[in-house]
Write a structure and sequence with these properties.
Structural class: alpha/beta
Shape: globular
Oligomer: single chain
Order of helices and strands: EEEHEEHEHEHEEEEHEHEHEHEEEEEH
Radius of gyration: 21 Å
Largest sheet: 10 strands, mixed
């Protein structure tokens, strides 16, 4: 159904609604969990991997608009989770969710959404909604589903208008692990599931700020033993594990807010010359620790088709090479604020924003995109090999 800022008349048969912070009301058919949820509306351009997107903790407090119109055909299964059911609070689709038609499916996507407490809205003009986000920025909103079509629009509008938004919000405490965990799962094989890692060295301690599980699988695939620790783990606790390197994970929210407690730990790791590798939120906080600043993006980058170019020294014949990458971020390192001690290594070919840094004189680097994909291309697995392979040189 089309976007409407003026007429709030509920169409016949509408059982779901998206109410934006400015009062715009978008009607459709609800599915998944009943009730309402508040979040920032974004769009994702990936053609596959809707289950992985919905369980990515980086989407906490967000409502994902899928630009690909047909969602549901591969159903849902337990193997494709990227976290313990965390992630986006809801999603918006063009067509009604289709029945599954895939031999790996264990459940219909509609039922999976219901089981995991996520709200869906179908029948929406997602092109119009995406265009609105591109022109006006990502809005705050409330998504709601009532099988009987009963809504208190006044209350929903008030909730959307009063929500603080993601800027200044530390969401990591709600998505990080509660305890230390030894990770063993490696890459996936049809008919066998996830293989178990057997390496004892090098040992990577991964700080979980809201990580996708496939990141840990790729670290194992690259040859590392992985220990995952909660976001609040101290420098002394990390060093007591005797890591050969430390990984800084992706996660939701404002990096400056999470950085209040995370950045001092990262600075201490840099001072101790500990090899570091950061992805997404981890990359942003590595930038903060090195003296750069981060900023909220206008619409963010979310999809599985984002071109990123390698720049700067150290790439040899591959300098200038373009990688097609998977992205999910609404904040970015401000490339204009990078100090002389930091080299910019990757940039987005969409808008020139920073997508990679390396700390001079340190074995520490980070990228804004997701080299572990899921969903997305696999052009960037070399980064895991670069990090884990470099640890063997210590």
């Amino acid at each position: 159904m089309a976007l409407s800022a003026s007429s709030h008349a509920q169409p016949k048969g509408a059982t779901g609604v998206l109410v934006l912070g400015d009062g715009t009301v978008v009607w459709g058919k609800g599915f998944g969990a009943t009730g309402s949820a508040v979040g920032e509306v974004c769009f994702n351009t990936a053609m596959t991997g809707y289950q992985e997107v919905m369980t990515d903790p980086s989407y906490d407090s967000q409502i994902v608009t899928f630009t690909f119109p047909h969602i549901g055909n591969v159903g849902a299964n337990e193997e494709d989770h990227e976290s313990r059911g965390l992630g986006a609070v809801g999603c918006v689709t063009r067509q009604e969710v289709t029945p599954q038609s895939n031999f790996r499916a264990q459940n219909e996507f509609v039922e999976w959404m219901k089981d995991h407490g996520k709200i869906g809205l179908s029948g929406v003009d997602t092109r119009a909604l995406t265009r609105r986000i591109r022109i006006s920025g990502a809005p705050n909103a409330v998504i709601a589903y009532s099988p009987r079509g009963e809504f208190d629009l006044k209350a929903l509008k008030k909730q959307a208008a009063e929500w603080s938004g993601l800027e200044g919000l530390d969401l990591v405490p709600g998505v990080t692990r509660e305890a230390q965990e030894d990770w063993t799962g490696g890459h996936w094989q049809l008919g066998f599931g996830y293989t178990n890692g057997s390496a004892e060295k090098p040992h990577v301690v991964a700080i979980d700020y809201g990580a996708k599980d496939n990141i840990f699988r790729n670290l194992v695939k690259a040859g590392a033993k992985v220990t995952v620790v909660p976001a609040g783990t101290s420098f002394d606790q990390i060093m007591a594990l005797k890591p050969d390197g430390v990984f800084l994970s992706n996660g939701p929210g404002d990096p400056a807010a999470t950085g209040e407690y995370a950045v001092p730990v990262i600075k201490a790791l840099l001072d101790a010359d500990t090899p570091l590798f950061g992805i997404c939120l981890g990359h942003q906080m590595l930038g903060l620790a090195a003296g750069a600043k981060t900023a909220k993006m206008f619409q963010g980058h979310r999809g599985a088709n984002h071109p990123v170019q390698r720049i700067g020294e150290g790439w040899g014949a591959s300098e200038g090479l373009v990688e097609i990458t998977s992205m999910n971020h609404g904040f970015a390192v401000d490339g204009e604020t990078l100090p002389e001690t930091v080299e910019q290594t990757h940039v987005s070919l969409f808008d020139g924003t920073n997508c990679g840094i390396s700390i001079k004189g340190k074995k520490a680097f980070g990228v804004q995109y997701h080299p572990e994909a899921s969903p997305g291309p696999q052009d960037s697995f070399y980064l895991f090999e670069k990090f884990v392979g470099g640890l063997g040189e210590n």
